[in-house]
Automatic annotation (TrEMBL):
Gene3D superfamilies: FAD/NAD(P)-binding domain (3.50.50.60). This is GMC family oxidoreductase. It comes from the Bacteria. Its cofactor is FAD. Keywords: FAD, Flavoprotein, Membrane, Oxidoreductase, Transmembrane, Transmembrane helix. The chain crosses the membrane at residues 6-32. InterPro entries: FAD/NAD-bd_sf, GMC_OxRdtase_N, GMC_OxRtase_C, P2Ox-like. GO terms for molecular function: flavin adenine dinucleotide binding; oxidoreductase activity, acting on CH-OH group of donors. It holds the Pfam family GMC_oxred_C. Belongs to the GMC oxidoreductase family.
């Protein structure tokens, strides 16, 4: 297609889901994905290849503001980062849609309420075939439709951990997951968290919404199509063309609508690199494109009992939100606690280089592995920039007091549960812990590039639908919120742009 009705840039959660929402509308849709389909190879269940050798990591470097280069953990495949995600499809809590005070400042409100957004959460849960249970978590907001599938079952060591936490008066709850556990384990006895999905075990962007979208003959996917910049019309009020490179050749497509879904970093980069009269890039009258970059403050925590082996294969079925809305003592929010996929010695080796392998194997075999996640607050000086061909990240972490507090209280809890050794380690910039916020939505074009339906205030035919639009990071995995907004925006486009 050279003149499609719609071009969608990116096939991750945002791009694939909005494509599924627009499929069947009669519009011709071209999806441009810079990566290729993830192949099935012996590396897909090899923890050494994945976590030590970095087999799937991108062959690119970004720079910190100041000059130091690093290899980012973002993936470029059909389905985007979701091919490696933990498949946690959890709703923001109702309170996350309102302004909420944290130790590091105020988390801003969304431009609409949870109640307005709730039906789209339900539709997204159905699309991603989410497994879950209601009634376990006191912070769980209202659901108009129950989960269609029961939760992925706890393995015996995790059932024991659930009982131990309950014994402290806490409220452990089943993680809502896009995982067909039987299909996943059929392809290999491993966890799925951070493992590539080459089968049907995880419902990711490719196996869920993209598969549904491509059933429409009017939807076409081009791979190896790396979008370099957008071209504005002569009056700068619309996007006239999308320029991309494929197999070394620069190509151009001229759609009626452009939906940018390249991810929180790369969507901002594409806009910043796009020519504009003021030199600030497109959709950037507010000077907010690339700003307000957020990446969850998070740590891994290992609760170790040398007397008991953890025989779990996948482990990741449990969360704890007792400290999500307060610190448990009437103070400010801390964050979410959830299980990691089961680690082994190779995974530990990726982070602890000096210890002998037998010690790492013993530690991994006797640990229950947790993920502590706290909100990173938006800051205009926390930003993504471009310098020639380089991507520059200036991440100013905020609200670290919450992570310190959550680490302290969970260490106390795990020791009270009988784990004599509790170790923790924060994640750094190499781990894309839910990057978001760089092209945020809002009500005011002076302070936000996008309106509440993710349409650019500056260019009427441009929408940005990925983690970029999030006005806050909350303290839970954002995939379901991105998918729900993608369905909401697709519905809006059908009603306002595709009417006969």
């Amino acid at each position: 297609m050279t003149n499609p009705d719609i071009v969608i840039i990116g096939s991750g959660i945002g791009g694939a889901t909005i494509a599924s929402g627009l499929a069947g509308s009669g519009a011709s849709i071209l999806m441009l994905e810079r990566g290729e389909k993830l192949p099935t190879t012996p590396h897909t269940r090899d923890t050494r290849a994945i976590f030590v050798d970095g087999h799937y990591r991108p062959k690119e470097m970004w720079r910190e503001a100041g000059g130091a280069a690093f290899n980012p953990g973002n993936y470029y495949y059909v389905g985007g980062n979701s091919k490696f995600y933990g498949a946690v499809l959890i709703r923001y809590r109702r309170q996350d849609f309102s302004a909420m005070e944290h130790y590091g400042g105020v988390s801003p409100a969304w431009p609409f309420s949870y109640e307005e957004f709730e039906p789209w959460y339900s539709k997204a849960e159905q699309l991603f075939r989410v497994r879950g249970a209601l009634g376990e978590d006191p912070t769980e907001p209202f659901h108009s439709i129950p989960y269609a599938f029961g939760p992925v079952p706890d393995e015996p060591p995790i059932a024991r951990a659930r009982a131990e936490l309950k014994g402290l008066g806490l409220h452990p709850a089943s993680l809502p997951l896009g995982v067909d556990i039987d299909a996943w384990l059929k392809d290999g006895k491993t966890g799925w968290d951070a493992f590539p999905n080459t089968g049907a075990g995880k419902v990711d962007a490719q196996t869920g919404p993209l598969a549904a979208a491509l059933a429409d003959r009017n939807v076409e996917l081009e791979t190896g199509a790396h979008v370099e910049y957008l071209e504005a019309s002569s009056d700068a009020r619309t996007i006239a063309a999308v320029h991309y490179r494929q197999n070394g050749t620069l190509k151009k497509v001229t759609p009626k609508l452009v939906i940018l879904s390249a991810g929180a970093v790369n969507s901002a980069v594409i806009l910043l690199r796009s020519p504009s009269p003021d030199g600030k890039g497109l959709a950037n009258r507010s000077d907010q494109v690339g700003r307000n970059f957020m990446n969850h403050n998070s740590s891994a925590m290992l609760a170790i009992d040398p007397r008991r082996r953890n025989t779990s294969v996948y482990q990741k079925t449990l969360m704890l939100n007792d400290y999500y809305l307060s610190d448990g003592k009437g103070g400010k929010p801390l964050g979410n606690v959830q299980l990691l996929g089961k680690i082994d010695g190779h995974i530990l080796r990726a982070n602890v280089r000096l210890a002998p392998k037998f010690a790492l194997d013993f530690m991994a075999g006797h640990a229950v592995d947790w993920y502590l996640m706290c909100e990173d607050l938006p800051d205009p000086e926390s930003r993504i920039m471009v310098d020639g061909k380089d991507i520059v990240m200036q991440w100013r972490r905020s609200n670290m007091q919450s992570l310190d507090g959550l680490t302290k209280v969970m260490r106390e809890n795990f020791r009270a549960c009988g784990y004599p050794i509790v170790l923790s380690r924060p994640f750094d910039k190499r781990t894309p812990s839910h990057q978001c916020g760089t092209v945020k939505m809002g009500d005011d074009p002076a302070t936000s590039p996008l309106d509440p339906f993710c349409r650019s205030f500056d260019h009427r035919n441009l929408f940005v639908v990925d983690a970029s639009f999030l006005p806050n990071s909350a303290a839970v995995n954002p995939a379901l919120s991105i998918a729900a907004q993608a369905l909401r925006v697709a519905d809006h486009i059908r009603k306002t742009e595709l009417v006969a």
